[in-house]
Amino acid sequence: MKRLTLAALLLLTACSPNGCVLEPAAPAVKTDPPAPVPTPTEPAPPPGEVPPAPIPEPEPVPEPVAEPVPEAPPVPEPVSWPHDPGGALPPGSGSGATDATLWAAGMRFPMEAGPAYANSQVYGYGGFAAPGPGGQCDARNYAYPWRDNFCETRSWTNGMCPAGRGHQGQDIRPATCVKKVHWIVAAESGRITSIGSYTVTLLGDSGRIYRYLHMDMAGVNALFPTMASRNVERGQQIGQVSADFGGNATTIHLHFEIKAPVSIAGSPASVNFVPTYTSLVDSYGRMLNGGA
């Protein structure tokens, strides 16, 4: 049997019981193609008129370029130096002061430049009670660590010392063991009130008193020949390190003192020698770090 095509099957299913009648196909309707849609154009300008220039396309706005952020320079490490705590005197030289007050906050270190070496000129090499052989220019005197010598054994009255007597200031050696080279400066602005045979006294604007011993006194007098010349500014040169001691022998060093009002053992406050070491540590550290 021949297979019926799909079209024949569809024709058979569409026939009625009375038979299939094929209707004639409707004639195709001819249609015209759609008219083209006119493209809109600018109206033509009137005769004799110049057509306007076309509006230019806007320039593209460039994306903003972020400025490179410079890297912050590294923070330098603070400069330090070996120094013993205040009150730690050389062995066998007495008992140090236990007071840790910063008696001269903000003062200028009394030497114009470093390095400088705070230690004992009596209990150091070349001193009266030296720890062993060696002269005052021994390299061990010109080396760290620093060491306090306020209250070192002496016969001078000093109410801030445990014994009630002792060294009244701090010995400081300059960078080298040479006289009349290393400058000494004013610890604060004020007036030089006295120039003796080996001592210079400065009354600071704060009311504190600073005493400088063993400078080259001829040079000091040349700098300040009259009373009118004795007003000084903080950091001003006032002399050079030497070993002047009114004809007595001493080593090349600066002996530096601070006097301030203080109450001792419950007594009314009066001007006394006060421990210098803490103020020297503070001012030297500032000088080493560029903030004299």
Could you explain the architecture of this structure?
The structure is a single chain. By secondary structure, this protein is mainly beta. It is built from 3 helices and 10 strands; from the N terminus they run αββββββαββββα. The strands form 2 sheets. Strands 1, 2, 4, 5, 6, 7, 9 and 10 form an 8-stranded antiparallel β-sheet that branches. Strands 3-8 form a two-stranded antiparallel ribbon.
Largest sheet: 8 strands, antiparallel
> What oligomeric state best describes the polypeptide chains here?
single chain
Helix fraction? under 10%
Low-confidence stretches: 1-17, 19-24
Give the tally of β-strands.
10
Please state the average pLDDT score: 87
